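Re: the 198-residue chain
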Amino acid sequence: MILYIASLPDREQRNRLTSTLVNILAIMNPDMRDQVDIKHKLYDHVHLMSDFTLDIDSPYPVPPRPEEAPRPARVPYTQENIKLRPYGKYMQRMIEKAVEYEEGEEKDALVKTIANNLKKMYLNWNRDSVNDELIHEHLSLLSGTKLKLRDDDRLHSTTDILKANKQVLDKQKPPFKRRKFTGKTNENNGRKKKFGKS
């Protein structure tokens, strides 16, 4: 229809038919009626479908061709250099802050807490058992060899961490409810049917 309208020699007739066609398109899509500037959008669609060959007195400016339309600005994504991705940037930032702490009990407790969290996060990605030596290495790598656990520090066991994770997941699941048999069926319209009696 649009190509036919574009081929007509009389400009007045093209204007009239295009206006009628836009009104028909608006009626065919009643869900679009609430949109702002629906007529403007439909006139843009008509120009696009005619490959910009439709010469009419449009109440709206002719849209630019897709290749001429201005492209949206590129969104810059933050690219942070995370040494070990399974731990994420926040754990790396916590380790950087822990490095700044003065030596003492508070720092030792913080380092142990961070190491336990590293182990817990490692187990989120790798369900196999993880040895504490690997966590020591990762802590040393992430802190630039500035943080180390004391010799007598013991991390939570893998089984305890996995058990705690399972309990958290179980709490998040909705409880399974068994349906009770009431004796009602659709066939007897809700009347209870006693077994052994007809």
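Residues 85-172 form one domain.
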